Amino acid sequence: MRYKTGEIADVWRRIAHRCQLQPLTVWEDIILQLQRLPRDRDSRRLTLLAFRATVYWIWTERNTRLHQQLFKTPETVFSTIDKQIRNRLQSFRHANPRASSAMTQLWFLHS
Questions:
Q1: Does the pLDDT at position 71 exceed 70?
Q2: Total tally of structural domains belonging to the chain
């Protein structure tokens, strides 16, 4: 079984919504969208963090399905991404409590 395009799009759509992005599905369009992010540092940092986590976990899921025939639902992949982002934001608390708080609020704003 392969990852259906709709499943991938569903994970990205949910992450994009959290980051207040239009959920584009063409790679080049997504890259352009990311290059044009607003200058708000916290929002930009959160969006790039979420994008990197999404690419990583979708690629990991693809490899796991291909090589081990183990399959996770889109909901499980989203949950993993969400947990990683929350943990990463919490890791900023000591070094930069203001940024940690601001990005955490942004992440939960559209949950």
A1: yes
A2: 1
